[in-house]
Design a protein that fits this description.
The chain has about 240 residues and is α+β, with helices and mostly antiparallel strands. Among the domains are: about 70 residues, Alpha-Beta Plaits (2-Layer Sandwich); about 55 residues, no CATH class. The strands form 2 sheets. A 4-stranded antiparallel beta sheet has the order 2-3-1-4. A two-stranded parallel ribbon has the order 5-6. The longest helix is centred in the last third of the chain and has 18 residues. It is globular. The two termini are about 20 Å apart.
Length: about 240
């Protein structure tokens, strides 16, 4: 079973056999261009809200009267990133503080990512996806948009197009994986951001799962050895 945060979902789809890597690379290149070039003019920002429940962050965004803000990334329990214009995000940050947020941090980003403001980018990406072969994954790939695996009944092109203007639900994705028997998580890529999200979900659910990281040759070799040991223990 695999998953990825935002852009990382394409890597998961390649791993699951739904996309050829050449097609995935072409799609994500256009995806990046559209998210930048077709973003409406404005002064945009994002911020991380820590210490509030999802519904509280949603309520803080609804209370914004000067600008626009909405949840963009449900990362892990009590950590949600919001996106919008600077005025709206700044007001939402202040409202979140008043509601008891432990910390609010403006993020270094340049667009209203994963919000309705990227509708034009979504439509343009949909046309690119039409020309690519996309199959139902051979292994379970849990999608960001609803934290459920892709199925044969899904319109995968439509889902991937809407992805850029819909919130990511990594917290629910990780929970789904844990609830469905995943006991070892391997993060591939720089840093340990997703591993930290897994740790947070793990603590909230009281689950006992292993977390590993691969970001260079040495860590790859280390993870391979750890997996060999685990397989030996299972036997």
């Amino acid at each position: 079973m695999s998953a990825g945060l935002s852009l990382g979902e394409y890597a998961a789809l390649v791993d699951g056999g739904a996309l050829r890597i050449e097609d995935a690379m072409a799609i994500v290149q256009k995806r990046g261009e559209y998210m930048q070039d077709l973003c409406p003019e404005g002064d945009w920002s994002m911020a991380a809200i820590l210490g509030l429940e999802n519904k509280e962050v949603e309520e803080a965004c609804k209370k914004v009267t000067n600008g626009f803000a909405q949840p963009a990334n449900y990362n892990c329990p009590k950590q949600v990133a919001i996106s919008g214009d600077k005025d709206g995000v700044y007001q939402a940050m202040e409202i979140a503080k008043e509601m008891g947020a432990k910390r609010v941090v403006e993020l270094k980003t340049s667009g209203p990512f994963h919000t309705k403001k990227l509708e034009n980018a979504s439509k343009a990406l949909r046309k690119v996806l039409e020309d690519k072969e996309i199959k139902t994954p051979k292994t379970a790939v849990v999608k960001n948009i609803d934290a459920r695996p892709y199925t044969a009944e899904d319109d995968m092109r439509d889902i991937l197009a809407k992805h850029v203007m819909s919130p990511t639900r990594m917290s629910d994705t990780i929970k789904y994986m844990m609830d469905n028997g995943v006991d070892t998580f391997i993060e591939i890529g720089p840093g340990k951001t997703l591993s930290n999200f897994v740790t947070s979900v793990k603590k909230s659910l009281g689950k006992d799962v292993k977390i590993m990281n691969i970001n260079d040759k040495e860590s790859l070799e280390s993870v391979i050895k750890q997996l060999e040991i685990l397989r030996g223990e299972d036997r």
